[in-house]
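Workshop exercise sheet. Pairs work together: one partner reads the sequence aloud, the other fills in the structure field after running the prediction. Swap roles for the next sheet.
Pair: D.N. / O.F.
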Amino acid sequence: KKMYGVPMKMQIDDVEITRDDFMAFADIRRSDEYNMSSSEARESAGLSKAKWFAIMKQYEHYENKYKEDK
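Structure field:
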């Protein structure tokens, strides 16, 4: 099964999300300039489709993981 052309299993299991990846996503989210499902939002953060949708799917997980790194 695919979501936006990216295999769903890859989004969750095979993609490494770094703190920088998450922060790029979070910055775009906080800007409130884009629909977060749009390619423009993803491109402005400089993330791959797989990373973008992995973060979307598990946002709270990464938020909790990386807020502890502050």
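Discussion prompt: The longest strand covers residues 2-3. What would you look at next?
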